[in-house]
Amino acid sequence: MANRFTNVIGFDDSPFDKHRDRRVLVVGAVYSDSRLVGVLSAYITPDGSEATATVQRMIQRSRFAGQAQAILLQGIAMAGFNVIDIHALHDALGIPVLTIARHAPDMQAIRQALFTRVENGPAKWRLISKAGPMEAMGHIFVQRAGLSFDDAQRIVNRFAVNGHIPEPLRTAHLIAGGIGRGESRGRT
User: Class of 7-177 per CATH?
Assistant: First the structure.
């Protein structure tokens, strides 16, 4: 059981301007133990609805599909409110999915924004609700599909070597930020 989660892929999106950018870069950092072994990338639309299918396709079409043992996401939405259906992604790939956030989200504010400012907001809210509440895990918050809380903790402990955020997510964040802005900055 100790080596169950040795190969994981962390995904994050690049910074974007919702009034200007029609496409947002999504980067996947592929790790085998503590080593970066690959990078995946694709584009999605701000506040769109294709993030789940795009992440699924990125993995399925890659040479890493057979080795991936977990998917890590920097939150449940990319490119604003392009919400990922973590349970559908898990079902389609047969790989556990773990979302990670530094802070507990303000669910009331998210719901308000979805229902008043985002096309298909109620459907996106249903996806967020379906994922279940975020669970506190030390200094971070998680949502999970296809794995127990203990297994999620094992993944975080194994890959969070430079802080509280697992390296695959930190790396995806740095790459996406560096490409999106020309220079990486900020925290994951």
Answer: alpha beta
